[in-house]
Amino acid sequence: MNQMIINSTTIGVVISVMGYELGLLLKRKFKSAIFNPLLISIIFVICCLLLFRVDYNNYNKSAQYLSYLLTPATVCLAIPLYQQIKLLKENMVAIFAGIISGVLTSLVCIFVFALIFNFGHEEYVTLLPKSITTAIGMGISEELGGYVTITVAVIIITGVLGNICGEAVCKIFKITNPVAKGIALGTSSHAIGTAKAMEMGEIEGAMSSLSIVIAGICTMVGASVFANFI
């Protein structure tokens, strides 16, 4: 199997897509947030690599074409935002205040977390971009001297948790405004949370799409400042 992946340029993509399709099937069947397609696909790929003793680097090389689609897929999230541009203009101050508050909360929590567990600088800056999309977070982590591979894992975990728990948290705290829901999901759990926001409604999806962009920019600036604290 390892040799097959080495000789193939697409089998890594096939394995990844199969895992995601399995996740979609389970989610439709059981209708539970815990069966998140991305989470299921991650578990599926890990099991395949362990079962067939496939080297991760070989798999990653074969699946790299999926990574090329990450940036254009993120850019396409601007479409629902354009469709709700009137709503954005009407609530601009509240929207930007919410996004900035979310970014600052994330950075402060990581700073406190690092102090409690006595993290070194590398571990600290690795976690700072946890709530923004992978395409931006990887660059921030690398520039600040963090461990990029761990940053990617943390970003994915953050997104999956936001996707699974986001709607339940909104219900617990009785957050009913669609704009607030979208901002919360996009700012805290980037593109994966936005996928959930789009399931909840058009307004939630549009606001979450905007949050990804603004939160990414704010985190770039904020992480550079917070990186000097440890």
Written description of the protein model:
By secondary structure, this protein is mainly alpha-helical. The protein has 2 domains: 2-68, no CATH class; 78-229, no CATH class. The protein contains 14 helices and no strands. α9 (92-116) packs across α13 (178-200), α11 packs parallel to α14 and α13 (178-200) packs across α14 (202-226). It starts with a helix and ends with a helix. The mean pLDDT is 88.
Distance between the termini: 45 Å
For the report, how would you describe the main beta sheet? none
Average pLDDT taken over every residue? 88
Quick one: how many beta strands?
0
Low-confidence stretches: none
Summary, kept brief:
Its main location: membrane. The protein is an all-alpha fold.
